[in-house]
Fold these 3 entries.
Entry 1:
Amino acid sequence: MSAANLVQLLYLVATGLFIMSLRWMSDPETARKGVFSGVAAMVLAVAGTLVGVVTTGGTHYWWILLAFIVGAAVGYPLAQVPLTAVPQRTALSHAFGGLAAGLVGAGKFFLYYGQGDAEALAPYIVIAIVLEILLGFLTFTGSLMAAGKLQEVKWIPQRPVTYPGQNVINLCLFALALGLGAALVLNPLAAWAPVAFLLVVLLSLAFGVLLILPIGGADMPTVISILNAYAGLSAVAMGFVLNNKLLITAGALDGSSGLILSIIMCKAMNRSFANVLFGAFGQAQQAVAGGEAKVYKSDTTESAAQIMAQASLVVIVPGYGMAVAQAQHRVRELYDQLKKRGVTVKFAIHPVAGRMPGHMNVLLAEAEIPYDDLVEMDEINGEMAQADVALIIGANDVVNPAARADKTSPIYGMPIIDADKARTVYAIKRSKNPGFAGIENELYYLDKTFMLFGDAKAVVGDLARQLAGEGGH
Amino acid sequence: MSLLDGTTLALVQAPAHGGHGQLDFMGALFVFMLATFIGLMAIQRVSRLLHTPLMSLTNAISAIAVVGAIIVAAGKDAPVYVTALGLVAIFCSTTNIVSGFLITDRMLKMFKKREGSGK
């Protein structure tokens, strides 16, 4: 077998393993096999590439080895972050992925340009290179911004930043980048081509920042998914540049994953892509907030614990507040205490609860709550009327009944967890201010609702202690 | 350059050469379309429970960019700065491969069924 065929064979097997890797993710039982198959695929892909490079006379092997070692040394600690930091870790690795694609695109362009190779710079190759660097570099800065917002880095504004003409400016920049790209496609070997190329790179970098500036925390799950898709698509573009089918397949798998997650997130917020990217969600709502002050009824953990102890079904609705307070282990204690008393406990998981898709599930799994008790929104809503208690831990918009009834509300139409249908509602909230999006939540003013003010971790821990103290055995 | 080397180069790095390149482009489009459909169908079946691990897994998979990065970094007649771009790209991708697969596995290990649940 020739070396070339061996390379392609390795790539073929790697492609199959990547597909199986995603296939095995369909069930938590088989999901870990998916990781192993992904690792195997990656090893084969790298091995195949090295075979190809060696047989065609490559060089710089020591440097390449060094890059591998440094990469692994940085990657290992990034995998050990606490699970509450997973959203920003994910955003950070999208940034790395985008940067890698952008750099390879730039490298290829300057290589061909330096060689004056008109054939290698055929129009479709240049189109692919331009798309690769556009997507790659905008994913790079966009994801860095997203990671910064999630990590609450000081000099990155948390609240959406908007200014007049924002969308017009962004679209103009994007059009300018596309125009320069088109000029490059037509004259890839012109004397000004390297300058135009660098301008496209700069515009993409700027565009990534500007795109994320107006985005608030509540939209992060959608934005992270979109950036995920972009990172995949930039790998696809790289595949077209290098005529490498493995890159195209693996990139397409990643791209479709990002696409599906974005669609699920958008549906769960009843919003369109365009609205998420150009709508500046948080801003629109500040005008709405701030009507006349209504009164909350608050309650003590003591009486809340008593009510829960007598319940037969308690539904817990976790939100980003649970993640911020790192309350998941206390929630587990509460879950155990209630179970001990024969209370059925279920968790109602809204698709956009938290800062990335599936965020709540991972945190609760970390606290060793069996995943059978984590119930999706559509499924739990049928049961909410039978629930004696709905306990809301740091969730806000996802339980706001205004989404069902109030046509003037900015979240009108968003599917919610019907916590208000439970017999009694307890809501744990850090402060009396409205949530991140700045929307008043009618749920908190209902007759059946009692507020438990305080840090989620402390309040839930208190509830668990009350339950343990009273009954025990 | 021997004939064998020429073919290998075409398959691994394949700068397009004339009509052959165009044909390959169409082939690449076919691959892209089919892979996208397979991806969409596989991902639709992924349990919502696992969306966070799914994202870190696909993150690691998209670090397949390492293939392109190696090809650029190992280029023989490339100027130094092109090689440097390739090496940085290898670093970035390796970071994603290592951290992506490790953290996915770390998360998946945590998902446990209720003991004795016969469902």
Note: The longest helix of chain A spans residues 86-115.
Entry 2:
Amino acid sequence: MSNSLATAITAPGGALRRSAAERAAMWLGDRGTLVTGLVLAVLILGFSLLGPYLYTASPYAIHGHHALQGPSATFPLGTDQIGRNELARLIAGGYATLIVSIPAAILTFGLGIVYGLAAALSPSWIDKVLMRVLDAILALPGLVVLIFFSALFQPGNFELILLLGLTSWPGLARIVRNEAIAQRNRDFILATRQFGGGTWYVARVHILRVMAPILVVNATFLVGDMVLALSGLSFLGLGVQPPYTSWGGLLQTGLNLIALDPWWMILPAGLMIFLSIMAANLIGQGLLARFGAAR
Amino acid sequence: MLRMIVNRLLTALLSLAILITIVFFMTHATPGGPAYSILGQKATPAAVHELNVRLGLAAPLWKQYVIWWWHLLQGRLGYSYLLNRPVTQLVGDYMMNTLALYIGAILLALILSIGLGLLQGVTYERWPARVIGALQLSLYALPTFFVGTMFILYFGVKWGVLPTGGITNLRLENPGLPDYARHLILPVLTVGLLGVAGLSRYFGTSVHEELGKDYVRTALAKGLTFRAVLFKHVLRNALRPLVTILGLSFPGIFAGSVLVETVFNYPGLGYLLWRSALSQDYPVISAIVLLIGALTVIGNLLADLVNGLLDPRERFE
Amino acid sequence: MSTVLSLEHLSVALKRGRGRPISVLDDISLTVNAGEMTALVGESGSGKTIASLGVIRLLPRSAEITGKVMLAGTDLAALTESQMRKVRGRDIGMVFQNPLSALNPTTRVGNQIAEVYRLHTGESDRAARARARELLGEVGIPDPAERLDDYPHQFSGGMRQRVMIAMALACSPKLLIADEPTTGLDLLVARQILTLLSRLRREHSMGVLFITHDLSIVEEHADQVHVLYAGKSVEWGGARSFFAQPRHPYSQALLGAVPRLGQARLASIPGNLPDPESRPPGCRFAPRCAFREPACETAYPAPDTTGGTIFACRRAREINPAALLDAVTPEAAPAAPVNRATALEVTALGVDYERTATSFIQGVLGRKDKMRALEDISFTLGQGECLGIVGQSGSGKSTLGRAVLQMIPYQGHVILNGEAFDAMPRAQRKPARRRIQVVFQDPKESMNPRMRIGDIIAEPLKLAGIRSKRARVDQTVALLDRVGLSDRMINLFPGSVSGGQAQRIAIARALATNPGIIVLDEPTSSLDVSTQALLLNLLKDLARQDGLSYILISHDIAAVSYMADRIAVLNGGRMVEFGAAQEVLTSPRNAYTRELIAASPHFRTNQPGGALDIMEFLPSTAQPSAV
């Protein structure tokens, strides 16, 4: 019983709800967020994955005579304390960071959805049990657990992916479960059951479809979280191990030598982490705005 | 009402019990062990075995589990392998430092967030809100360890106005409060500023939602000024979710503390955890992990309870 | 008779985005006199809420307002904002729809009332509190002193609305504006609120501007009626003249769309409200009017003052009310119930309230607080019969529907074509459920917003095993046709169709599996009166064509009276009355039923000259039924 005009007036204080024309303008505006994020993401991906082919200097080669130099013609981002090319290391760092973060995000995503949906669609007592366990797991901050486990054994990249995935899924699982439960008793689900839809059919065809926007948005934010977590771990020396470099590791080196004022060892690496997380969040934000209307 | 409290308390205790069990398995059921760290890599198997018996690590797992609970309930958390001090004392000392850091940071973050969030909620979709939104996005994407390092680089190294780390100036005989305070500034700034991102976002959304509700229109129809409506009605309702968020952010805070304290060499709980993890000092690790977990559960409980108290709808259910 | 409020040529235009402002109200003039009630009537989109917000100037800053809003001599439109603030709450009191959200949920009721009193009189807290208590008593809230410190959610819906009225009265305003105050309230409660308002306005010589979409509610209480359509006034005048004989086709259709006892068909208005950007320059109702002629669309008709009411229609005088006196033959009262095969039988049905465990321990032990939502319900449903289930909120009628549909657990038996559901083997239950389908109250909520309409209707076909896409598409088109929608809809999403259209799609989907029985759970409650008529007519036609049985669940006795062959009345989970519709409605045995029926203003038998007779002139759906 609503007409867009009538509902347009209810919010006082000057906050007009949006009409069709305004929504279109906003869509374009928010597309800006999405586009910026995508462009940024493409650039970072290109930098990290294609970089080694375009800029062939080795990240491992030691140039003792040129140690700890600022940016110059030969070394655009300077050198580290044993004379390695910082720019090359930055590219290599990107590579390692991304090949761990992205699969970890995918793993987290998969585990979270399965657990969350299982909890939401099970009989109430199973759901309660699953959520209690989840609460207990969530009481331990992921980073703490990560630190604990990676101190135990030096993880290779594959183990890192597993570790990250296994410690991050609870957060997503809870979101998925809450959302699925909210959808579960909506009228259109009930109607579908009435003409023959079973539990799995309903989950697959309807619930997932309605949840798709939230899932996609969360997936993008997840990538950002993984990059952050991995960089943090590497910063502590517990993440990506030599011979691989990572941005976090570069930062750690920079911090250790900070008395020598080596801004070129700190700023670029930190910026890359910042930009990556920014890209993920911009994409998520842009998608959120796009999907927000069609709920 | 009493029922609700008891109910939540019991749930919290159960979560705690599960947590304690998980930590037990984490620390006792994993391969390796502290023996090699303590005795060195060249230790003979016999020496390792003897050490394990001494430390109580050779008994069957279930027995260790029972002893674990028994000790826990007595408050005996053991001795640090490395530093040979009682764990409780150790953790206690380091925890005070972390608390100092966090209380300062939360206060800073709260003040800034309420102001920014209010502005953002009221000017929704106009340029101030957009600017604040962009600011939040940027702050969110900045890693704490990056910002901390940059702070040290500029304020500490380049300009030399603030100390570069630690909690006191080691050269001073009697570091007084001012010295502590100077050392706290950068860490507090780091944690506090970055915390503004999430907190102000929540608050801004909360304010905006409240402004769209019907009772605001009713209040205006009574003749109140917009400002009166904002501060007398909306603010109170919008602040409520903030309390819950604060309570729920405990885990995040401790995770963050590891990174920040490492950057600043600040002797807090996170720093201790990191050091202990590197040297496999199990008693300390277990104690810290347990503490963090327990504080999280308590934080959640408090958040729930306070929310229940503040929202009259919950109170009378 | 002093005039409290006088709107003079009030027009409001709203800016939408960067485009030109849209006219929402066009040249409205109305008056409210002291001690009287003027009813401002219109459906959604008519601009009535804008009018109320325009009077107290709570429209967005970008709104353009022209004309005068005279409140006892002062033009409100010319005041500054700070002057206007003094008027709000002191000279004008407002009562909004939906009191639960219109009151601050975290502030005590006494404080909310005291606030407005203190604000305008500057009195002390003690005095304000005393005044609040006085007001609560005046609006009929028992134990006002204790209830001062209660929160809004501790009151029932009707009581909350009384609280809002108390708040509006705090400073003894000259004018009270009530914007749909009874929408969403139960019938009995709504009636009480209206009676309260009438008493208050007489006692305080206060003018009341009552805004509503439901003409029948104000029939007893309004002194003046003003009908709006698409932002323009179409008819206005004294209530008595209006209700005796409305002249404008739209007013007539509005009244005629309300179901009355013994009516064979409802008057419905085809088409939709015109899009504000594409309004005809002439009469805005013309595109939907049965009496239109080309001149109607080009120039807006001047108000005609010849009759009892003033109206804007060029042809109204030709519509001779006397000629419309072709009394529709009331349905021959069924002497004995028609012998029908039993499609459904329900015996001793009971349902417990599902309360989530209130404590963790209880949850673990599996014990729940037990309360009965339904107790010992039994009835039979014949083939082709429509059974109406009537009750107020909380009576358990929706629960009954869900139990029959097998959506919730229950005790007792539901027997479909001789077989009880609880006795059926698992494998048989699904196909059995297909034979009872459902139409919910909120049409858009009952469809997946991200699925196309064609897929929505075809889904039951798919699940029933029809593999060929071609066959499904053909059937979908056929179903759409049966409910009167074009196949253009197939590729649209539910969000882009109107409420009435969406509900028809829901009906089409329900028909897809060829059910014998359809449970209609408040199918028209969220629709406009005119759309409601359209839908009820459609349902009746479908039933006749297919021999469908209906269980019609509704709080609206009028709708039930139009559709049902037999009626069951529920109160507090029990069936208090059950019998043939005619009997239940005209001579109810149970006291509660009597109260319900008396409260429904629709309940007049056919009056000569009643508006309902013009239905013959309305196209498409107006086929007098062969009774």
Note: DSSP finds ten helices and no strands in chain A.
Entry 3:
Amino acid sequence: MPRARWIVMIALLLVAATVGVAVGTISLTPAEVWNALRGSADAMPTLVVRALRLPRVVLAALIGAALGMSGAALQGTMRNPLAEPYLLGVSGGAAVGAVIATSLGLNPALLPIAAFAGAIAAVLAAFFVAHAAGARGDPRVLLMAGVVVGAFANAAIMVALANAPVNAVRSAVWWMMGSVADASWQQIGILLAYTTVGGSLLLLFGRQIDVLALGEDAAAGLGLDVDRAIRRVFFTASLLAAATVAAAGLIGFVGLVVPHIVRAAGQQRHRSLLAGSALTGATLVVIADLLARVVAPPAELPLGAVTALIGVPFFLVKLRRLA
Amino acid sequence: MIRFEDVAVRYAGAANDAVGGVSLEAPRAAITAVVGPNGSGKSTLVRALIRRLPLRRGAIRVDGGDVAGLPRDALARRVAVVTQREELAFPIRVDEYVALGRFPHLGIWHAVAQRDRDALGEAMRMSGVDALAARRVDALSGGEWQRVRLARALAQGGDAVVLDEPTAFLDVAHEMGVFELLSRLARDGKAVLLVSHQLNLVARFADHIVLLHQGCVAAAGSPADVMQAAVLERVYD
Amino acid sequence: MRAFRSTLTIAFSVAACRGAPPSVHADVRDDFGNAVDIGQTRRRIVSLNPTTTEILFAIGAGDRLVGRTQYDIFPDSAKRVTSLGPGIRPNVEAVLGVRPDLVVLYASTDNKPAADRLRQAGIAVVGFKIDRIEQFRRVTRLLGRLTGDSLRADSVVDTVSATLVRVRAATATLPHPTVFVHAWAKPVIAIAGGSFMTELLEIAGGRNIYDSIGAPSATVTLEDVVARNPEYVLANPLEAKRMRETPSWQAVPAVRRGRILVYDTSLVARPSVQLGAAARSLAELLHPGALR
């Protein structure tokens, strides 16, 4: 891809991040932001920038990168433009983990762990169901297994919420709407590890995804162990999605929409598509978080609500193209 | 070069074998055609060759070596397969598409070497699609698309090309063009194994014909032997 | 002159004996907007609200209680009353099962369906929303009339009011530090101007940074709290501990400096008969020693 496009994507991300750090309940000029980062400003802007805004923006960027890559990998592997990172029951499983943790009144610090455990359990359950059905790598069977697991998870969530105290329900619902308001450097460290490892693996699989995109028989004819490759991509992409859910709750549509944007900008090969999706996803979520903070002061909208709104124009555009 | 030895394949949940004990050979420098009515097991043989279906019985050998024992990329470097249909969910450029043919030759880092680029150029030229390099695959006509798919198979290199219905959806002129290209490949020393229902052109171009009926070999031999009314009527009723 | 004055005195004392102002039965409505029939004295009362349960015990009607919610644990003797489950969206069957002649509910929209069904079953239902101290006074007096002992209810109200007046006087001349009253962490919810806690805070010599918002609580953001920079943060023990352990809350200077005031949840969490003691406890937190 022409170098110019990469520069534009990186520049957009940097601009979005700067605006994200500068703007909020207390607005700062870029100069004040710079001083705050270096620690030479008055106490209050430094505090706001370092302890509140910077972690949020960094976390938002990581989430966007992880979800963008996950979505791009899954869409190519499934040869389905509507595939998205929560495919294998990741969102349902994570929500079950989180709802159980809140209903039991556990320490909120354990919530991300419960959500992650739930997500991984759901993915493994989906693989197990597919295996039991006799097709270990067939993406359609995996998809159906994911739907089964997701349906079960939704039922479990409803049962848990029906019997939970009011406060637990509020906490659970707020978590499910997604937010980076509680970003901490520790969370960021963990997500960074997952995104780096998972992202690198997906980049490594990039050419394999190109080949898978031709269809399973054609891919097999080119020497790819199709079932194994599909399992590996699914698992890595789901791991990335689970890590984002553990960090910030359910943030939908990013993994679905970002690969389309990058493809429309001319990216075809999955290696560059994945890298471009990481950058574009990061930019998108940073902007979404900014909107969540400034649209309805003094309260803040859940991040998942803002990203869900992205889905609307996206599907409208796709609909017009079909008709 | 490619030999099927008493190969039997059954689809999961089926009552009968799709292919029940087929033996055939596709030698180098020749066009071997597998013909037969729908459902006779032709495509099943191809899918078994690329290991998408498990064998109930028998073995498939490439240059004497059992296919099941070969690493997949090694097999792909020797045998290029063009399947019956391909639907790309995301349309890409022709040159990108043909370049995917080099996948079995790429190392773990998937880095592209000069010989890959050479093979790419050569393949596109032989198939006559080098002028289409910058076009998107969804902007091609049926004939152009088939030739591009052939180019990808050629880029894959190897000593054998296996094609499943390469002239479906093509008009007569393009069909001739494809068969002429296959003849050239055979003359250059490749083993060409072809599944087709186009009996006329098969009769004209193939060196050996294998006629399948309900998963078994009904007749095999030169076109003169197989393309006889009595033989064909038994199978195509 | 003396005859006139003695007539007036007699007139007033007669009125005082009756224990209530003359214009009584006319137009008393509960917080659902329904008329309250004060005519009958109620003997079997279900109270689905910790505040009203405590009030009923304080005005001497505790022995008439036949049902409470699982959360009504003040005073101690309340625990002997049958628990009927939750107070929001109550179990109507369980309530009917104890055959009450009066049900006292929290007047929220969630409870309207239950209130309507109980009324259809022929039971008197009153809904009260007690967010401010004045509402506590009104409800206590009303419950006094419903249970036939207005004198006792009035004396409860007067005792509480007297304590509040004393506490306010003791802190009136002291500087009133700004306070953020923490209600919930995810999302960040603050107690705001419409709540009795804000009134208590003011009486105790402090000022809620969100007192300009009319609702009892408000959803805000951490950044907003940082911007308003309160001198203290007031929270319950569990939330106080979590705030100290959460890195993002360290952005609030009061949290960083350890100026978190922890209130006694058994006293401060409800606008009931302990309001006086609650105000005293808050004053002790904000201005130690001021009440002596």
Note: Chain B has one domain: 2-235.
